[in-house]
Amino acid sequence: MAKFIFYRILQAIFVVFAVTLTVSFAIRLTGDPAIMLSQGAGSITEADLERIREALGLNRPFLVQYWDFVSGVFVGDFGRSFMGGTSVGALIARALPATLMLALVSLFLSIVISIPLGITAAVSRGKWADQAIRILSLVGLSFPNFWLAIMLVLVFSITFRLLPPSGMEGPISFIMPAATMAIILTATNVRLVRTTMLETLRSQYVMVARAKGLSETKVLYKHALRNCAIPLVTYFGLQFGGLLGGIVVIERVFNWPGLGTLAFEAVAARDYPVLQAVITVLSLLIVSINLLVDIAYGLLDPRIRTE
Amino acid sequence: MRNVKKALTAALLASTVMVAPVFAAGTLTISSPQDPGNWDPIDTFLVNWASVATNIFDGLTYRGPDLELVPGLATGWDELDDGQRIRFTLREDVVFHNGEPFNAEAVRFTFERLLGEQGAAGPQQSNYVAISEVEVIDDYTVDFHLSEPDPVLLTKLAGYGAMIVPPQYIAEHGEEHFDNNPVGTGPFSFVSYSPREEIRLEAFADHWDGAPELDNVVYRFITEPSTAVAELQAGRVDIVIPPTIPVGMIPTIEAHEGISVVTVPSPTVQALRFNTQSGITADENVRKAIIYAIDRQAIIESILGGEAEPITSFQSPLAFGYDPDMELVPYDPDKAMALLAEAGIGAGATLQIDVRGNDSTFNEVAQAVSAYLSVVGINATIQPYETNVLINDIIPEGRTGEMFQQAWGGWTFDYDNTAYLMYHTGERWNPYDSDPELDALLNGQRSITDRAEREAMLQEIARYTADRALEVPLYNVNAIYGVSDRVENFEAAPDSRLRLTRVSVGE
């Protein structure tokens, strides 16, 4: 087991390294921030641009800039934003909790909804409840998330003025963005829970449990659901990673002060330090979650550990 | 289940109380599309810096929504030594928000900082290089010594980099503190700043121009137009400042009760410029034909909802150097075809139009242009680029198609700031053309301090570029504000620099 974890951690470090290197390199191909910074400043000469590049440290070779960034990350210094010199560490420290909270609330909501719905669909397979749930899930899958978000804003913020259309001003601000994400997630999760449950229900130990005369609730929630846990935990864990990526659009629509909004604006402004830092933090997060899932998987299922 | 229902109802009711517009009387909330990230005047170039900071800082001169240059912290000025020296008389009894007095020393400090090492790292310095020295004559008199006359200098003194900053405060707290905690002499003083979220200001009762009507101002940074408009509709934002609202959203706002759209001509102009070096547009007659072939008025009516004015040269009517007597090239496809025939261009000629891919309105305009061109037998393809790629790589490197989009927002409202950069040989926005006669005109007007004479020369430059058909001057767009009806005494500023001294809010 120790060896298994050791190799997984090595892999994770390599992935984070590769991601940051690629991103740092790729964003430098997309244009010169000095020109972005001097637009509207009137007459700009090549000498002005050179001065600004020097002030931003952009005239140094790429590998030097990259090394600077990486060595900074190790001591917790993410550098300064090109937009006004704000400390990137401070920006991330504000944005990361906002994004994590939104992602966790959305995932939690989705799990709470999809497990009972999925089980109901599996138990009443082929009956009207199953059909209804499957149709609902298909409808949920077909919504583009930004459209759903805008519709929610129209109804709850503009027509009824119940919820704030944007910003993060306390628990009430979570309702619409989390609901949007949860609806989209639930649409897939319900199907997953249903399929997993159907498979489990066919197994012999379920038959044994029923033969013992246990109540159907006990059979479902005590025996079957536990055995569904392995694939579901893996899937939800991996989903959390994908969720962090998908949150960008939702954050933008709701002006959520999270990593997505930060990354979006950094791309538009060619703000290399901010973008590098956001991507590094996101990849660290996703890689660690995958790592945890792998380890949890190994713990839950001895067969994987021994391989 | 019943309990859940009860809890939900309670939660919804509670939320209603929380969300219903809870504006304190006298608080104005503004949505701004971008956080400049730094409030120091010499570190910025962004319009959305100015839309906030014009309330925190004052310059020696001030230019309001009517674009007239009026005294600011200077009560008057005299040009001496043939424009090589300008003497300013300063306003007395002005204090900074921290209580520090404003005087000649503050002016000298401001410009030495701007023109020295501190300013060199920012984008503002190059606008003020004509100033060689600021000499303190007495507490309320300063002389600006100029290395060369700069006819636009007085206007620039109302601009970003020339805002007067407090010497003692900066010495005491340091540059970095000043970036995030600005202090000026303006009508509102700084309260708090959350990067990428909001900045809060409060009224500065001791302002020399009288205390503001409002108590507090909150600027929220909202990038997404539909989100900003939703906030306006929900009654949680009072003013959405440009550039946020696209033309397409005007009907949505107009249809909603309690809010409205206010538009004002902006300095921003759009043109389709020509590659005058290669392709069919190297021929002047072809360029003229293309201008005749495009019905700009129809484009403005149908795509821009009428929120623009056709232009005769690459400047807005607000710019110094604009010639009201210059005539618009009419829409005349027959003449276009005749000119094309003269140039030996038959049906089926092709050209490429480069546009900013994320500018959806302009993409529609480009499609309309392409349709007009097909009427006269030219097949135009539209090549969208990511904005930054277009302005960083494609245009300056001379890698455009035969035509390319150029949007320009000359904040000095002086044609020099546009024309020199667009037409002078070797400028980065001018990758194709080199015209000694035009260069001579462009250089000549820079050394003339007589306003009327210089205006005439700028008008001559505009006519010259029209004669050579260096671009299709398209239109001057309006700046679009979304405003709640509770806002009183609102006056839309063409340059987004909303000074809020006289603005108030009703119930």
Automatic annotation (TrEMBL), chain A:
Record domain ABC transmembrane type-1: where: 96-293
A Pfam family recorded for this sequence: BPD_transp_1_N
GO CC annotations, alphabetized: plasma membrane
Cross-referenced CDD domains: TM_PBP2
Keyword list, A-Z: Cell membrane, Membrane, Transmembrane, Transmembrane helix, Transport
Record membrane topology: Multi-pass membrane protein
Location within or outside the cell: Cell membrane
Transmembrane segments: 100-123, 135-160, 172-193, 232-254, 274-300
Predominant location category: membrane
BP term (GO), one: transmembrane transport
Family: Belongs to the binding-protein-dependent transport system permease family.
Protein name stated in the entry: Peptide ABC transporter permease
Organism name: Pelagibacterium lentulum
TrEMBL record, chain B:
Record's keyword annotation contains Iron-sulfur: no
Principal subcellular localization: periplasm
Subcellular localization: Periplasm
Molecular function, one GO term: peptide transmembrane transporter activity
Ranges where the Solute-binding protein family domain occurs: 68-427
Keywords for the protein's UniProt record, in alphabetical order: Signal
InterPro entries for this protein: Peptide/Ni-bd (IPR030678), SBP_5 (IPR039424), SBP_5_dom (IPR000914)
Gene Ontology biological-process entries: peptide transport
GO cellular component, one term: outer membrane-bounded periplasmic space
Signal peptide: 1-24
CDD domains associated with the record: PBP2_NikA_DppA_OppA_like
UniProt-listed Pfam families: SBP_bac_5
Record flagged with keyword Signal: yes
Family statement drawn from the similarity comment of this UniProt entry: Belongs to the bacterial solute-binding protein 5 family.
Name assigned to this protein: Peptide ABC transporter substrate-binding protein
Organism: Pelagibacterium lentulum
